[in-house]
Write a structure and sequence with these properties.
The complex is a heterodimer of chains A (284) and B (232).
Chain A (H helix, E strand, L loop, with lengths): L1 H33 L4 E7 L1 H5 L2 H13 L1 E7 L2 H10 L4 E4 L2 H10 L2 E17 L11 H10 L4 E3 L5 H13 L8 E3 L4 H11 L2 E5 H7 L6 E5 L6 E9 L9 H12 L1 H9 L2 H4 L5 E2 L3
Parallel strand pairs in A: 1-2, 1-3, 5-6, 5-7
Antiparallel strand pairs in A: 3-9, 4-7, 4-8, 4-9, 4-10
Helix pairs in contact in A: 6-7
Chain B lengths: L1 H15 L3 H34 L5 H12 L3 H12 L14 H25 L3 H9 L4 H11 L1 H16 L3 H7 L9 H11 L2 H27 L5
Helix pairs in contact in B: 1-11, 2-5, 2-8, 3-5, 4-5, 4-9, 5-8, 5-9, 8-11, 10-11
Classes of the chains: A alpha/beta (284), B mainly alpha (232).
């Protein structure tokens, strides 16, 4: 009997502490409410927008203007889109146009708008064993396969990975073997692996510029082809299809991204640090 | 070598200049870890005590599960908690995913088995004869428990320390359920991962030194607590 009482006491004690924790939290919430508590908006996006620092520049402006707290989940485009179809995010900022269209067709995403672009580039080892150059990305992929040079792929269903797979298909090659290194990681980490393994890798220019200082073994080998354009879209998750989606702020976010002031911020971002824009305005 | 030195320099600089973001991240890390280890201790210590002192049917099976749980990979914990907290999941209406609370939940899931398991093994080592003697001297149950707690103090603090080491080192689950959101769920470990992927190795190293310092201070404090009056 007495033993039971001891555990009962411990249990009560535990509940007390837990409820105390709960109280402090709701107190904080109350304090915030007086200044009208910001609503929360979940933004699922690609790693490139976070790793370059673009979002650090844009989000504070949006948050201040609209009293919204944006929760950025930086994952690959594949996962971001999946979060959209599950209704786990409110708004998406991604760069895989073909997959995005599927979401619009299925009704998971609405209000899709073009925001900005930059371009994909192929970087490779400084000694360039495959001897690739110029603009033709398909020919470059073929040459790399012929000389069996290392090729690093993100392999994570991201926008860049999807683009790379499209190029392999266009070049009529099924990449396999030991020289095709799949990292399953973000752009930054994959670039570092390519740097260590002397591999070629397809990357977006923004991440490359942001990381170039660490990638001493790599250089740009192919760039400028018109099929290397990297287009970003912003879109809302359809509130009619998914409960709990914050569509009010999501719509504001879409409008914010395509507004001319924001577009100017996007275009001037990075000029100071890299001497060139990392992203370019590109609204419809 | 130079990089390590740069990192150290940067860490000292960050602390001395009171870099607000890094202070907030450190503070959040501490809050989350303390909350997690507090909950784990409140549940795990009595539970471990109970499992260590009593004998009943099915007890061994429970111990097996707790021992498996001691090695539960954090990413598994992270995945489970995420699925539980998804908007489409069973607890989705609470809107807890991508919040510090979600990180605490994942950390409790990985540290609770450690605290419980180590406590229960400490109590299993108590000599039956001692229990008998305590009883013979006419101690009440509460007095008995108090005596036993005193006996096992070292092991209990060790259990808490082991659990704490687990939560402060946690990164996979925290990233998954917390989302590494700036100013909200970014903790020391997840910011190290992020800075590395950004290529800012010096910043990552600096944060790693801060994390190590924090872990060192807390472990040292707990060790002192554990070894206090050890000689007497």
């Amino acid at each position: 009997m007495l033993k039971n009482r001891f555990f009962a006491m411990l249990f009560v004690f535990m509940l007390l502490i837990l409820s105390a924790c709960g109280n402090t939290k709701s107190d904080q919430a109350n304090a915030k409410e007086e200044k009208s508590e910001p609503t929360e908006l979940i933004l699922a996006t690609t790693t490139s927008t976070q790793d370059t620092g673009l979002l650090d520049e844009l989000l504070p402006i949006f948050e201040k203007e609209n009293n919204v707290k944006v929760k950025t989940i930086a994952v690959g485009t594949g996962q971001a889109l999946e979060m959209g179809t599950k209704g786990e995010a409110d708004v998406l900022l991604v760069h895989a146009p073909k997959s995005e269209e599927e979401l619009v067709t299925s009704g998971d995403a609405v209000n899709r708008k073009r925001v900005m672009y930059n371009d994909f580039i192929l970087v490779g080892p400084k000694d360039n064993p495959a001897g690739v150059s110029g603009e033709d990305i398909n020919a470059a992929f073929q040459k790399i396969t012929e000389v069996k040079a290392n090729f690093v792929t993100r392999g994570d269903d991201s926008g860049t990975h999807k683009k790379e797979l499209a190029i392999w298909t266009a070049a009529g090659i099924q990449p396999t073997g030991d020289t095709y290194i799949s990292t399953g990681q973000g752009m930054g980490a994959s670039l570092q692996i390519a740097n260590e393994k002397d591999g070629y890798i397809l990357t977006d220019r923004a991440t490359w510029l942001a990381q170039e200082k660490n990638l001493t073994n790599l250089q740009i080998v192919v760039e400028g082809g018109k099929d290397l354009m990297n287009i970003y879209h912003v879109m809302q998750v359809n509130p009619e299809k998914h409960d709990m989606v914050n569509s009010k702020d999501a719509e504001k976010f879409v409008d914010f991204m395509v507004s001319s002031e924001t577009q100017d911020v996007i275009e001037s971002f990075g000029k100071e640090d890299y001497g060139q824009s990392l992203f370019f305005k590109y609204t419809e | 070598m130079e990089l390590i030195f740069d990192g150290l320099k940067k860490a000292v600089e960050m602390i001395l200049t009171g870099d607000r973001e890094i202070l907030e991240i450190t503070w959040l890390t501490l809050r989350v870890c303390f909350m997690a280890i507090l909950i784990s201790s409140i549940i795990g210590l009595p539970l471990g005590m109970f499992l260590g002192l009593t004998r009943f049917k099915g007890r061994k099976l429970i111990l097996v599960f707790i021992n498996i749980g001691m090695g539960l990979p954090p990413v598994v914990a992270g995945l489970w908690i995420s699925m539980l907290l998804w908007r489409s999941g069973p607890l989705g209406h609470l809107q807890l995913l991508y919040s510090p609370t979600a990180i605490v939940m994942a950390q409790v899931l990985v540290s609770l088995p450690i605290v419980t398991g180590l406590t229960s093994s400490a109590f299993q080592q108590i000599n039956d004869k001692m229990l008998l003697q305590i009883k013979a001297l006419g101690a009440t149950k509460i007095q008995t428990i108090a005596l036993l707690l005193k006996q096992t103090k070292i092991a209990i603090v060790a259990a808490i320390m082991a659990g704490f080491g687990r939560v402060i080192a946690e990164v996979g689950a925290a990233q998954m359920v917390g989302g590494n959101i700036q100013g909200d769920t970014r903790i020391l470990t997840t910011s190290i991962v992020m800075e590395v992927s950004k290529g800012n190795f010096d910043v990552a190293l600096a944060i790693s030194f801060i994390l190590l310092t924090v872990a060192l201070l807390i472990t040292a404090a707990l060790t002192l607590l554990q070894q206090r009056k050890r000689v007497s």
